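Cross-check.
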Amino acid sequence: MTSVQTAALPLSIIVPVYNAAPWLNRCLAGIAGQTFRDWECLLIDDGSTDESGAICDAWQQKDPRFAAVHQKNAGVSAARNKGLSLAKGEQIAFCDADDVFSPTAMEYALAMHRQAPEAMVIWGFTTDPERFAQKPGALDFSVLPKAAFDGVAWVEILYNAVWNRLFDAEKLRQKQLFFRDELGQAGAAVICEDGEFVARYLDQCAPERGWQIAYCPAPLYYYAQDNTTSLSTTATGTGAAEEGPDLRENLAQILKQEWDGLLAYAPAFPEGYCLETDAVVRHYLAAAAQLAYQCKAARKPMDRALLHHPCLANMLAYCKKAKLYSPYYLPLRTGNYALAARLWLLDATENRSFGRWDWLGYYLLGGKWKRA
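Predicted model, tokenized:
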């Protein structure tokens, strides 16, 4: 595979295009309208059979910052890899052909990068067109260690896409990091090329002192839902039959690392935490219940030290103080880990009984705590 070329521009935007004619002009108008203007946009037409190729050519003629590249159909991963092989930018951004960048998206992204050059820059997204249409405010972002950010990433599903972050082109070159072609082809059992690429980037390209995350929660990207044929919204092909809830490998180790990271960043966590505190607390209480279930299912002893971790104790105390309800609060607070495990299983398998247990816990606490 051809390696990424020497960087010469601040930014390359890569747009894989396949039969996206109804949405492509909307996407490219969003890129052309960026308040930051020093970029190139590589339009990789992956063998489209509609008017997408002609639209790419028209934008190339209208604005020299756009470059149209046509290739035989090989899938979204191959299209993105083609873009990587041609990119001249110091930073790489991706946009799907049916989605839209906010006008200030690249300005804000590169401002975050300048202020935190070793951090991975990540921004929020929305599927709500009315929310996206609201005029963006001034740039507001936080920089924190990855371990202290991972809870937010789980809550907001921020590690599963490539279009909500910047990638360092030099790091991609050094590691020869490309998308796996087989994961981006129609007919794959699971469409997960984005998350797999992000995971390898985080693993292989981490700075010496570990990742910092520069995160702007504003919805700078519109993740459109009006293209029902998009590989981002559909998976053709047949996956394995469901045999039970999704389990997380090394969950105890992950939770200890993240809880240690949260306390290192905000010693009184959840107090002093700057991002979606309630949602993150609820996420971690559910994760603790999941750990109880996985230990029980594997017939392994509970990690009592982890379940007495000061971060978990802080979160339970925060729930009581803020009257923040979670169905896992009472089981974890009282040390009834078997019940916590059962509740998590009912929730993960969408069992109707979970709702009864959920409301029972809510009314046992007086029926006035904040629900999600």
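The two ends are 47 Å apart (CA to CA). The mean pLDDT is 91. Passed to J.P. for a second look.
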